[in-house]
Amino acid sequence: MLATAACNTSDLERQNAPVALIVTNTQELNKIDLLGGTGCDTEVGTINLQSFVKNPNPNTDIAVNPALNNIRVTRYRVSYQRVDGGTLVPAPFVRSIDILLTVGGTSSGNRFTIFQQDAFLQAPFAALLGGTGRDAETNRPTVVMDVIVEVFGETLAGENVSGTTRFPLEFCANCGGCA
Predict the structure, then answer these.
(1) Has residue 6 got a pLDDT over 50?
(2) What is the pLDDT of residues 81-106, one digit of tens each?
(3) How far apart are CA 2 and CA 83, in angstroms?
């Protein structure tokens, strides 16, 4: 299961900046065994950022002072969406970061925290780890959700930019490791 960027043309058109922030990911794991095992020492994946010129017309402001269209990435928000019929998810959170992207530049392999330290001790994961080993809402031995990473920044000229990517993940307990 390969994650793709959740950035489409309408998202780009809603932003006023002459550049856009494109956020994608390189996903390494699709299944996480909450009890550990083979492959569980691997990162879920990395975040890739790209500054994309929306209108490469040389007569626009981007040609006058291109440095003002560099993007300073300042924070990211992680939220979760169940795709298996359940509704319980970890609490969303925001983290500060500082990455400068030049016009047309990229930043690859960024490692963002996508789960808070105590997330696996709370719902919906706690039910998989204790008692019946099944999700309380779906009665299944797995929890399937998307981890949504929204990245925010602004150009040096002060225009807001943002982008989003998703990691689809399946969680289980004592299911043979991570893959």
Answers:
(1) no
(2) 999 999 999 999 999 999 999 999 99
(3) 15
pLDDT in tens, 29-59: 999 999 999 999 999 999 999 999 887 665 5
Which two tokens mark 49?
A: 């950022």
Mean pLDDT for the stretch of residues 9-26: 74
Alpha-carbon gap, residue 71 to 101, rounded angstroms = 5
Side-chain half-sphere exposure of 159, counting CA atoms within 13 A:
19
Residues 77, 94 contacting (CB under 8 angstroms): yes
CATH assignment of 9-172, among 2.60.40.1940, 2.170.130.30, 2.170.150.70, 3.20.20.70: 2.60.40.1940
Instruction: Give the global pTM.
Output: 0.87
Q: Give buried/exposed letters for 93-106 (b at 16+ CB in 10 A, else e).
A: eeeebeeebebeee
Contact 92, 78 (CB under 8 A): yes
Both tokens assigned to 31: 């299944």
Looking at the DSSP bridge assignments, the partners of residue 72 are: 100, 154
Two tokens, residue 174: 């004592």
